[in-house]
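Archive entry: two folds, one per protein. Generate the first.
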Amino acid sequence: MFKRFTSIVLLSSFASTGTAIDITTNEIDRRRFEITIRSSKVLDERVAQSKTLLPALDACEPLYPKFESYTFDSSQKLNLDSSEENNTTFVFTQTVSCHDDPASSREPTHEPIVQESKLSDEELESITRANTISYITNKLAGNPKLAYEQLGEEALIHKNYADWLQSITPLRDSIGDIVALDINKITIYRNRGDAPRQGTYVAADFFNRYSKIPIHCGYLVWFQNASGAFEITREDSGTIPQEVVDQISPDQLDEILGQFGCVSR
């Protein structure tokens, strides 16, 4: 019987933009499937492949999936006008076969396992606070090249520095002077089973204020790589201008902040 599974996930990055991801599983024959990801933003190939793991397990159940070849195609036209629709198309197709023997199956390839950090929680928290303030300051008001160098592959929407800089320039030009940079919460994860790479992750929740944008909040996820350095693997944030804050109720504002993943102010 022909099988088809589809799910759509919407993720907000900024107040006026979002990423739509559609994942579809189609049966090629009795024990082979194609899992296709369509995204409104370009994804790193490894990140896209990792998103096929759960659909592969569902499609092959009770057998075991083996990840074979994959193809991808992307077209991106940078759009600086947030009032226009996103015109990026990214399509990633992974072929999966199903097997009785788990030894013949494998998950998508990731980097070698990184040992758990030897740093104490207090040291990790101190480093993460400093790194987060440095990244946000350089990205929005300082030297953006230094901020770009702190991004890992998983966090990069644009592959090269020029495109990344062009994508953040509208926010840099409109946000105004720094009023306050607050790191609300630090959460440390050591060798979590559901992490894409084993090792130490540290999440930093922030809530910042600028002279023209009263709310800029979200979180960064840092990963300590094999060299011992920290890189950003995920960044989610949102901005709310003053005119919007003035027109909505406190309950509505809290709801919006919750959608951004922002912790309490």
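Generate the second and append.
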Amino acid sequence: MNELIADILEVLDPQDRTPFWKRLFRSERAFLASQYAIGNIHDEVQGTRYFERRPRVIYFYYLKFNQDGSLTAHEYRYFNKADPKTPDPGPEDDIDDKTDLFLPIEFKDLDGHILKLVENARGSQTKPAHYSVGNFQELLWKRRCYFVIFFDEDNWNLYRRPIDKDPPIIFLTKKKNGKPSLPNHTFYDGKFRDIKIPIPDEKFDNRSYFVFINYMKSSKTGELEIGYDDREQYFNFNILIEVHMKDQNRTPLLVIFDPGGTNMGPPLSP
């Protein structure tokens, strides 16, 4: 309560010459600091080895503008196969007894997988095929996974500041579409990654992406995965995008995307 009062006083401070809307936004971000997807899972959960395991699947969200100005928003699910001939699991397939078919993905190997996913999204869009995510309001997660956001545009970039102070993802706890939204308790270990995408004439597109892990953590037990006691968890969050202006002397414009999604438990394997 004292922190909330301090935030309100900060907004109303008559000595602060910062425009009111900036003060309000700054205060909101401070109040929501605990909702950022940047913490280390080991700061939240002690004494369990479950969270030592790396996911075997990437949920890759690819965003790009079309020539008519509309937005492409596709979800790709990439499984790290021990044998490339292994078929992808279906949306409802639980293959708990065959997890040796899919290998854990280490952070250090992410760039190689993301490069393949970008080339696929720019090309055939068949390996893997994409899922439509509509207007980003009803995302569904059924597997413990890397969650990757990739905006494939030159001058549209994820908001990038010192990640411990200003990460590009903010989880909100207000109702959305009639659904109560939970505080973040399952998305952790957020990182920025820079990547070069090869293009013709031996050139590269410089891109960056943001990745964090959906641990499918139970909100009630505080450990292990989501279970039947809290089968569905709805999350409402903002993605902050910086748009660079034609006039390079101008500061970038901040644009907010406001997706929503649900963890469906217990999680499928792998």
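Annotation attached to the second fold: Residues 1-13, 18-38 have pLDDT under 50 and may be disordered. The longest helix spans residues 110-122.
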